[in-house]
Amino acid sequence: MPSLPRRFLVHTITIEDYLGGTSKGPKYAAPRTVRCLVDEQTRAVRTPGGEQVTSTSTAYAGPEEKTAPPLSRVTLPSGRVTKVIQTKNRDGGGLGTPNHVEFQLE
Q: Which pLDDT belongs to residue 1?
């Protein structure tokens, strides 16, 4: 299946994977840079636990990008820092739609 065309990946975000909580607060992995397309659109989404929350933006990246656990810290091109609600692997399943990873962000 084809991947999301590279020419669409016009933005860069920084992701710091959430590793868990400590007595001093949340712990994050080293930052990694991801080429993507950022869509700053507000919409209602469900967390992996089933709670309905508001997502203020979504980042679409190539299928080769690894996912990010919920609560991972993300810095958008604007400099705004947000967190991952959930990550979804989108596989076209032979329908001709591009495979990609979707990061739904607070």
A: 53
